[in-house]
Amino acid sequence: MALRVLVGCKRVIDYAVKVRVKPDKTGVVTDGVKHSMNPFDEIAIEEAVRLKEKKVASEVVAISCGPKQCQETLRTALAMGADRAIHVEVPEPESHTLEPLGVAKIFSKLAKDEDVGLIIVGKQAIDDDCNQTGQLTAALLDWPQATFASEITVDGDSMKVIREVDGGLETIKVNMPAVVSADLRLNEPRYATLPNIMKAKKKKIDVKTPADLGVDISPRTETLSVEDPPVRQAGSKVEDVSELVEKLKSHGFV
Amino acid sequence: LSTLIVAEHNGESLTKATLNAVTAAQAIGGEISALVAGANASKIVEEVSKVKGISKVLYADNECYKGLLPEAITPLVLAAQNQFNYTHITATATAFGKNFIPRLAAKLDVSPISDIIGITSEDTFTRTVYAGNAIATVKSKDNVKVFSVRATAFDAADVGSDAVGVEQAPSAESPNTSSWEGQELSKSDRPELTSASYVISGGRGLKSGDNFSLLYELADTMGAAVGASRAAVDAGYVPNDMQVGQTGKIVAPELYIAVGISGAIQHLAGMKDSKTIVAVNKDPEAPIFQVADYGLVEDLFKAVPELTEKVKAAKSG
Q: Which of A37, A90, A95 shows the shortest CA–CA distance to A62?
């Protein structure tokens, strides 16, 4: 058994932060705003660590692409149980135009360099809401993809995956190596304990650049503007159920 | 300009969201072709050939397209692209499109654009980011534009009675690296969540999965679909396919009734385009009231049964 697992960990604005659009409409305010690991990527790390605990995986390598602060995100992954990490440094402002396609090119190059047998990523980052990186990476490597996974069972050269689809659940079988994207119910990520946070400080983070990897990350899209969504006006309160039913009737709903 | 729409279906019928993608393609202009891949899907082909706005249907009939696995569909669409050189390729931003569109884009070395809500011009699209807290206008510099369409942002194309021509799709080899083993669909006689006119959703306030029966009864009285907040899914009350929100389904029904839902940002992202929003919550400070047209501050365990009864009475009266 020598299954090396690569896990993508994106640093995003913390899910609890109320995002504000910049007045010049070039993006959202990120300075002085709390950032943390994309919640779906925490699920991805947790799954990889569990595979290692079950002795299915031999090593868990966490990767993050972006500015220096991504190393904090990687420390979280290491504290959760990843063995080592790779930071592909993309400084600001280039990091703002880094697209999932660029990230996927980095992941696929590293997957080959590191002789990886399984890649796990979160299904979607909660900042750009793209839901692309896993699928793009699988395509670039010509590996099968098991997206929106809620249960994975590795069985030798293949893997059975239960997927969250629109109407319920779907079961697929994919050959290894493969890419998995984690959905909400795959697992419940653990909290990093203090001893593990201390241990994580001693684990290794390699720093590379896209140029080191020979990967072109120049953007293919241009964000022309970022604006506030239309505001929905709050209506009124109704006193009781009878009044609500009257309102529903007036709209022809009942 | 020419667009290829990859039709989504379940083997029996066309997914309605595909009709919304046709309307999006019409906003781009140029010819629209549709590709139907499936195993014995001639019924779907017939349905697609009557959709207004589509001028040609490509059909690929093969066992390997069962379940519409992206590993099998992608080479097929690449073969069609080689032959016809489309300027735009699209599908719906459903579980199918979200899975397939980026795989295709990577093979074309194109940066895909997910879940668009508007088309400004042939290369410029709008989409939501940060759970709908901001709207980005994005211009694609790639030669071929590959994108997925949020169904609720576009009207459905009409289905007429005249059928357009159907051609055999160019053949492609499936890599056989994945196989579709089966599915376990949530059985329900209620309308499908994303296309229902009325949706009733429950949150953590329901306190248990069993208590969702209160919502089912009201839903059946009104002919509504039933959804849930992420909190209710996280708590294990209901399956994930009922989740409405940033990481679940996006809905925009005529009427949305939120019961015991506080209104977290990520939930609002999935329902705030509903025409009329009703909120029932015992906490008057719940953020859901800030988007609700009609808010009722009351204990749901008292209000919902009463609402069901009064709606029943109104219907029979």
A: A37
